[in-house]
Amino acid sequence: MQTEVFSEIFPLLSTANPQTLEWLLNVAIEHEYPTGRAVLMEDAWGNAVYFVVSGWVKVRRTCGDDSVALAILGRGDFFGEMAILDESPRSTDVIALSPVKLLSISRERFIQILFKDPQLHHRMLQLMVRRLRQINQRLQIRSSPPAVKLAHTLVSLGESYGQKSDQGKEIFNIPFKDLAEVTEISVEETTKIMEKLHDKGWIKIDSVNDIIYLINFKQLLNLAGKI
């Protein structure tokens, strides 16, 4: 992978200098996982930072045999940075929702480069603050109707990871159970709302190719209360 492509895929690296990008690519390790495979188990947090080159993953909280999806991440995102910085144990796993390609950079090497490149350090802080704001937004709409909350989730996924197509922004056809858990509504509510959005022509679900098309993004934004 060329450094230009590396910085284009990952917003975190958009301000890093060319030497930093080249160094990161040289020390990064490539990984590929099939759908359903555990990408990162709870006892492995803190060992490395992971970058999603392609595909989709979910971060889930585990408690015994029970698990709940906390977040869904796609191409261009990263995870594992907080465990590296605070060195605290985690009770979460990362699971591949689709075939996924990752790059990992060990804790020692990533911290080393943060000290060497202040622009990368600053950019990382910016993105972590953005994540905190997204969490605050979710808290603010916690008491909103299920349709508003689900629209907010779809819009956030579309804004963060959506790819442009002739039928609107396209995202992965996330299982309704995971979509419901991340949105904090029931699977039944998720199913009914997605069917209504499909009937209205705001979204289109392509089960064969595992794609959700966000056709009427403006209406979804309006429903989510972002306009």
UniProtKB/TrEMBL annotation:
It holds the Pfam family cNMP_binding. Residues 144-218 form the HTH crp-type domain. Residues 12-131 form the Cyclic nucleotide-binding domain. InterPro entries: cNMP-bd_dom, cNMP-bd_dom_sf, Env_Response_Regulators, HTH_CRP, RmlC-like_jellyroll, WH-like_DNA-bd_sf, WH_DNA-bd_sf. Keywords: DNA-binding, Transcription, Transcription regulation. This is Crp/Fnr family transcriptional regulator. It comes from Anabaena subtropica FACHB-260.
